[in-house]
Amino acid sequence: MQFGDHFKAMKPLDPSVKSEACVLGQKRKKSTPKEAAVRKCLILEQKCSLPIFSAREKLIHQVNQNNTLIVIGETGSGKTTQLPQFLYAGGFCKAGKIIGITQPRRVAAVSVASRVAEEMDVEVGKEVGFSIRFEDATSSITRIKYMTDGMLLREALLDPLLKKYSVVIVDEAHERTIHTDVLFGLLKGIQARRSNSIEGKFREENGAEWKKTKRGDVTEDSKRNGNDQKAAWPHNQKANMFETSIEKEKDHHANGFLMEKSLSPLKIVIMSATLDAQGFSDYFGGAKVVYIQGRQFPVEIYYTYMPEADYLDAALITTLQVHIEEDPGDVLVFLTGQEEIESMERLLHDRISCFPEGTAKIMVVPIFAALPSDQQMKVFKAAPVGTRKVILATNIAETSVTIPGIRYVIDPGLVKARMYNPRTGVEALAIVPISKAQALQRSGRAGREGPGKCFRLYTEEAFHKLDDVTVPEIRRCNLSSVVLQLKALGIDDVLGFDFMDKPSRMAIVKSLEHLYTLGALTDEGKLSNPVGVQMARLPLEPLFAKAMLMSVSFKCSEEMLAAVAMLSVESIFFTPQDKLKEVNLAKLRFSSSEGDHITYVNVLCAYMGELKKIGEPQDKKAKKSLQNWCNIHFINGRSLKRALDIHRQIQGYIQGIGLELLSCGEDYSSFRRCLAASFFLNAACKQPDGTFRALASGQIVSIHPSSVMFGKKPDCIIFNELVHTNKHYIRNVTRIDPLWLPELAPRFYCTKDIQTNFLPDSQGQKPLQD
Ligand SMILES: Nc1ncnc2c1ncn2[C@@H]1O[C@H](COP(=O)(O)OP(=O)(O)OP(=O)(O)O)[C@@H](O)[C@H]1O
Fold first, then answer.
1. Atom 12 (ligand 1): residue with closest C-alpha?
2. Ligand 1 closest atom vs CA 449
3. DSSP state of 470
4. Do residues 498 and 189 touch, judged by C-beta distance below 8 A?
5. SS (H, E, C) 420-452
6. Residues 75-114: tens digit of each pLDDT
7. Which of 71, 74, 81 has most ligand 1 atoms within 8 Å of its beta carbon, as the pocket-test mutant?
């Protein structure tokens, strides 16, 4: 495609809703008292102009009247920022209760909390706060709390009735993340339990109202002292709720009854712009649905006439054309992952450097999940006057966030999604088309402060062929992590859990088997103690959590901690295509002939060494010298910063559960043995043609070119990631001795099979499963 052609090849679609244009919401900056007063007025004016504003009283009334409410309103109508404030003003935080709002993503939780704090004229962490994995900005006076859905699930481990909360708002419910889906079932249960279950009220001396239930059984007034009392925890999960929760309810009466303070009912609000209202209402027992009419500003939608062969090239050219031809306003480009974003960032910088003198400047800002929070927040900073900000984002900027200044959205219509095949037990990342609901959310990022435009890099016909809504993550992911959490919540009958969309029986059974193999479950299918309990406490995938626990007995927990932190981020090295030789030379300094895991440990150690030299706090000069060090070694400084962050956090958790941090020193064989013992399900053996066969699934895989093992031919390896592109690639690979497998995972491998398969002339076609 030639520069200049692309834009004209697009067909505008009439915006369906029109409204007055106005420019609001100037960027936040340190201001004089006068400026602050003006900004306050602007914010107030902006709040009052939101479509939700006129529905304020009605919404408070509806939440009062209904225990569950479904709220649907256009993107940008004010749901996320305003409804919690209405409920706060409407008395839902009396007696110290909290309004919790869940978001599928960290960045939304942090940025919306900051906006609402500004609107309420308070500091973040005071009346308005947020809680995300590895970061908590709340205090005893926090009443409006934004958090990721995963964090609320973790809170339920410690507070099974979510007693602090008067209202839980599940925002962006259409996203159907795995955590959101579990929350639906959990909240329903908590609501029922808080509303109906408890009888036998009596007053304690201090005047507090108490109710009593026999742990795990139905209670009836007439059987206060009886043995057959039950709590109304639905779906047969009541008993274990208390038996296996990591931290049990504190208030136990002498006669063995669990005492619960009288609780107000839990209000649940489900919110989205694009939701199957009927389906949700049915699931929540005929819950009332309210619609917020109107949107703030129109967004013009453009489609291409023809399908684009290369969406990255199309995105690059459209960005440049918007810059050259369109009015001022920032641009948001949706891409599928960190690598794509970083390569586009470089391409854009190359192109910008060729701009003729006098062309307006572009400031490129990336945002993706693996970026440290402080760097993610950079997208919210205004560009200097006369400069256009171009944000390169994954779908983490798709919902909830308002990025000030965005007027143009470029949407190639693709997303990187996790896909799980329960038959083979293999989970892989694949780039797939988005749903119509996602396309709508993406276009909704423009038109929040004024009219906007969205350029969809696909045809209108292709748009109509998209699925209406995204397939719930729970139907396409490995469920081990969720099943472990449900078990930790005392919900043992996972197959009977009240999922909105039930995952396949096979997927649940596979994950139960997986957790059992990892030692997290007992023969009876209950959470094992201490292994299962400790695994559930670590905020890691079960496989990594188990690896961490095992590394203590292999005396290599320091190395495993470093490896797990590094495996939590993407793209440790960056590889400019014109500098391949230099990159390979630089990598030599860290690379281990044994594989990527030890290489990562070496990189993190070297980075920590550099940090130590520089010392903290770092000034500008120190930061620059660290960046130079990263550049010289072709190391992605952003990824390393995040890895270090995660390293510190996990270290805290490990110490919290009393595990020792031990180093294996220079001899990495115990570390490799620990990797084999932990990731034996991801073992692969060499085939005569040089490819590898994954032993558990029988799938043929190739080592990814980014691995230090690429081009090498070890007999047996373990790997951590499978990526589908034109081939099945494995990444994060380490060489192991095949005989370690039957030794370290005897329930899964037998020595005879391994010996047969590893004879030098073996064809190795047979899966090695017992
Ligand atoms: N950080 C911000 N800076 C400037 N304006 C903002 C900011 N956050 C929100 N707004 C304004 O408030 C409006 C409402 O935002 P809000 O997130 O509450 O809408 P929403 O209905 O929840 O949208 P969505 O469904 O897209 O999440 C935005 O359209 C924008 O005008």
1. 78
2. 31
3. P
4. yes
5. EECCCCEEEEEEEECCHHHHHHHHCCCCCCCCE
6. 889 999 999 999 999 999 998 999 999 999 989 999 999 9
7. 81
Residues 6+ apart with CB under 8 A from 732: 567, 596, 597, 600, 707, 719, 720, 721
Strand partners, 212: 199, 259
Let me know: does 75 contact 298? Beta carbons within 8 Å: no
DSSP string covering 308-340, please?
Answer: -S-HHHHHHHHHHHHHHHSPS-EEEEE-SSHHH
Place of tokens 């199957």: 276
How many residues make up the chain in this entry?
Answer: 770
Positive/negative CA dihedral, 405, 409, 410, 411: positive
- In this structure, are strands 299-304 and 452-456 parallel, antiparallel, or unpaired? parallel
- Residue to mutate (ligand 1; options 17, 107, 402, 406; most atoms within 8 A of CB): 402
Tens of pLDDT, residues 627-655: 889 989 989 888 898 899 889 989 998 98
CA–CA gap between residue 252 and residue 256 (Å, rounded):
7
Q: Spell out which residues line ligand 1, taking CB within 6 angstroms.
A: 25, 50, 73, 75-82, 115, 273, 296, 399-400, 402, 404, 444, 448-449
Q: Whose CA is nearest to atom 7 of ligand 1?
A: 402
Measured CA to CA in angstroms, residue 422 lies from 432, 506, 731 at distances of: 19, 6, 21
Phi, psi of 263 (to 5 degrees): -115, 145
Q: What residue spans of 657-757 are helical by DSSP H?
A: 669-678, 740-744, 751-757
At 692, is the secondary structure helix, strand, or coil?
Answer: strand
Query: Ligand 1 centre and the CA of 34: distance in Å?
Result: 25
Nearest CA-CA partner of 535 in 17, 203, 157, 253: 157
Question: Nearest Cα to 364, choosing from 338, 377, 383?
Answer: 383
Other CB atoms within a 10 A radius of the CB of residue 493 amount to 12
271, 79 contact by CB (below 8 A): yes
Residue of the CA atom closest to atom 9 of ligand 1: 402
Percentage with pLDDT > 70 across the chain? 84
Phi, psi of 258 (to 5 degrees): -90, 125
H or E element at residue 560: helix 557-567
20-56 pLDDT, tens digit each: 222 222 334 456 777 778 888 888 888 888 999 999 9
DSSP β-ladder status, 426-433 and 257-261:
unpaired
φ, ψ for residue 570, nearest 5 deg: -100, 160
Sign of the alpha-carbon torsion through 232, 237, 240, 241: negative
Q: CB neighbours (10 Å) of residue 87?
A: 24
Residue 743 has pLDDT above 50, yes or no: yes
What ipTM did this prediction achieve?
0.97
For atom 26 of ligand 1, which residue has the closest CA? 75
- With tokens 């143009």, the residue in question is 408
- Beta strand extents in 171-248 (DSSP E only): 199-203, 209-214
What b/e readout covers 453-470, taking b as 16+ CB neighbours within 10 angstroms?
bbbbbbbeebbeebeebb
Cα distances (Å, whole numbers) of residue 489 to 14, 413, 527, 684, 714: 50, 38, 10, 35, 43
Read off the tokens for 154. Answer: 């973790």
Output the CA–CA distances (angstroms, integers) from residue 294 to 18, 19, 174, 417, 468, in the order listed: 10, 9, 19, 32, 21
Cα 43 to middle of ligand 1, angstroms = 11
- Closest Cα to residue 23, out of 361, 329, 443? 329
**C-beta separation of 606 from 590 below 8 A:** yes
Q: Residue 18 C-alpha to ligand 1 middle, in angstroms?
A: 18
Coil, helix or strand for 653?
helix
Residue located nearest, by CA, to atom 2 of ligand 1: 402
